[in-house]
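Here is a typical protein record:
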Amino acid sequence: MKRLMALGIACAALAGLFAMGPAVAEDKPLTVGAIYVGSVNDYGYNRAMKDGLEEMKKNIPGLKLIEAENVPETAESERIMEGMIQQGAKLIFATSFGHQQFAFNLAKTHPDVVFEHAGGWMQAPNFGNFFGATQSAWYPMGVAAGKMTKSNTLGFVVGVPIGYALGNVNAFEMGARSVNPNAVTRVVVTGGWSDKAKEAVAANALIDQGADVVTMHVDSPATIIQTAESRGVYSIGFQSTEARALAPKGWLTGLGFTWGQFMTATAKSVIAGTFKPAMVRLGLGEGMMAVAPFGPAVPPDVRALVEASAAKISGGFNPFTGPITDNSGAVRIKDGESWGGDKMGSFDWYVEGVIGKAK
């Protein structure tokens, strides 16, 4: 049901729908504004957003793109977006969670401007939101790690232990155990989405504890991947598929957001005056996430297993189907029960095989 609902939302959003919204004159090219919370050269979250917007720009001749990097999640973001509107922007992408309220404030005062926010929940006639459904997509990443580890110890650096991040860890460990029952995942939490110093310390700590495959959920995977590469262990990336350039030897694969199709469809709907807000959450095989290319260390048989696992997820397999126990032995998802997208933020526990405390 979750996947059918998601696909229904996707089809509606990507088709532009038929409800009339703010329109752009046909003889005037669309101007789009975009704000990023960090640098677009981070090989991670902001890079993926930038790549999606560039794809949108390429797909729509004449489209003008106004951008601002390192925009804080404060009232300063509202001032910067207002400036973009004054320069003619009729579509704004606010790409960080903390930008939501400030973008929503502007949506109220500028009903002729469309806003798309990444990761939030607010909606208005000219305000929608979008994000990738990441949790199940981590399952094939676990398959890759479980097959490639020699120590049976995997490392996962988590920025902030919100439910969605814990869900990523859980799917990763379940994927690993599906091919390697002895695999365990050690978790270190840094306490922030972007702290290079703590990320390096966390990666080194995991490697010192025996992890020979390291992955992460932070804004930029660069520091962790580079640390793993320097220590001679494998890495699995997240956020942008371009991160593979950082580890020519140890890169296995990764997950990347693919926003271009959605951003293009949204811009076209604004031009046509057919924009309709929606809460869009899509995963593998649905247009917003992709498995990154494999590194040279991954043999053909492992590649085939990972690809088959990704195809299984794309086909509707839900790894969060009971019975599932947590790492204290308590049953958290009962036999015959499944957790869908509406429950992904509710994780406050780790599955069996994860070494670490969720709270």
Observations:
- The chain has two domains: 31-132+259-282, 134-256+289-355.
- Residues 1-21 have pLDDT under 50 and may be disordered.
